[in-house]
Design a protein that fits this description.
Elements (H helix, E strand, L loop, with lengths): L1 H8 L2 E5 L5 E6 L3 H13 L7 H8 L2 H12 L4 H9 L3
Antiparallel strand pairs: 1-2
Helix pairs in contact: 2-5, 4-5
Length: 88
């Protein structure tokens, strides 16, 4: 789970204004690689226990990062497509 934490933590950061309202999202330097690694983790997740899936849900990665990538990184098609694969 430590590697999963590093991967998810490196996806990017939410940009906020002075009133802490979200105004954007900045993908991390290795965001695309981290997305691909996250997908690999999810594909290899044990179907009996689904530990990776449960942890990703617990950390709210879809709401905190994946949706933000799709919404704010429209100029990077590869990034958006890989983020969209997480919903399959």
């Amino acid at each position: 789970m430590e590697n999963l934490s590093i991967i998810c933590g490196g996806l990017g950061t939410i940009e906020e204004d002075n009133d802490q309202n979200q105004i954007g999202y900045t993908p991390g330097e290795y965001c695309l690689d981290n997305l691909k690694d996250l997908l690999r983790f999810l594909r290899r997740d044990d179907p009996e226990t689904r530990e990776v899936f449960k942890q990703v849900c617990k950390w709210n990665i879809v709401g905190k990062d994946i949706l933000q990538i799709i919404q704010y990184c429209q100029n990077d098609t590869t990034l958006v497509l890989n983020a969209g694969i997480c919903f399959k």
